[in-house]
Amino acid sequence: MSRKHLHAGFAVVMACCAFGQTPSFDAVSLKPNNSGSNSSSSNTHNGILTGSNVTLKNFIMRAYGMLDYQISGPEWLQSERFDIAAKPPSGADDKDFPLMMRAMLAERFKLQAHKDTKVFPIYGLVAGKTGLKAEPVKDEGGNNMNSSRGYFKCERCSMTSVAAWLARQMDRPVRDMTDLPGVYNLILNFTPENADPIKEGAEKKEVYPPLLTAIQEQWGLKLEPKKAPLEILVIDHIERVPTEN
User: For residue 7, how many other CB atoms are within 10 A of its CB?
Assistant: First the structure.
């Protein structure tokens, strides 16, 4: 048996075993959405997941806790969209949700996949010449984040949490490379990318610098371009049309 066929057979076995051992939704309704809209929405209320015009790729991202660029599969994963209603079993825990999503993908879309690593461009969050312009605070009660357009406030944030927030503002992952332990109270004001600084400043009574400049001036930190291996999910097989409800 060739290595390719052996790997494919192993993926099938793993998919079947994983489905048999992991929690699953009590009921799932999946309907193709052919509206042509690029907008989508999803929410969880009373434990029931509902979504409108959600891409198949988004399902996979939520199931495996990965970002868009970490999914390696056919291009149509981004174009096939669905409306979903999924009811978990009574007493299901939040930590079971990704596992139930994986079981649904294996059952309804025949998903088979394996994990690998790939070198990506990233940003390293490092201390600037002045060092961090904040003192550690007591780690009491967990962190509390509040953000809006051009504004970020975090109480009791670790540098890992700061890097995670910055990654959502950037076009690539951000890793904490500051070697700064502890947690901090931080506030950041900046002008978002593609925004009009004059208009933004008129609304906020002050003109703030772009994000990269702001974190240097206000925090004493900076982002440096680097490369690092990141985990990816390689799709070995997936059906474009799910099995019927």
Answer: 13
pLDDT in tens, 180-218: 999 999 999 999 987 665 555 555 567 899 999 999 999
Task: Report d(CA 136, CA 56) in Å as an integer.
Answer: 42
Helix orientation angle between 3-21 and 97-108, rounded to the nearest 10 degrees: 120
Tokens encoding 177: 């490379």
Contact 202, 29 (CB under 8 A): no
Helix extents (H) in the chain: 3-21, 56-64, 97-108, 159-169, 197-204, 211-214
Q: Which two tokens stand for residue 18?
A: 């994983």
Q: What is the pLDDT of residue 14?
A: 40
Query: Residue 126, SS3?
Result: strand
Q: Angle at CA 135, nearest 5°, toward 133 and 137?
A: 145
Identify the pLDDT of residue 198.
Answer: 57
Of 116, 110, 117, whose CA–CA distance to 15 is shortest?
Answer: 110
> What Å distances lie between residue 187 and 44, 56, 92, 145, 206, CA to CA?
30, 36, 37, 10, 15
For residue 37, report the phi and psi dihedrals to the nearest 5 degrees.
Answer: -75, 150
DSSP letters of 79-124?
T-EEEEEEEPPTT--GGGHHHHHHHHHHHHS--EEEEEEEEEEEEE
**pLDDT per residue as tens digits for the range 124-147:** 999 999 999 999 999 887 788 998
| Residue carrying the six token digits 């495996």 | 64
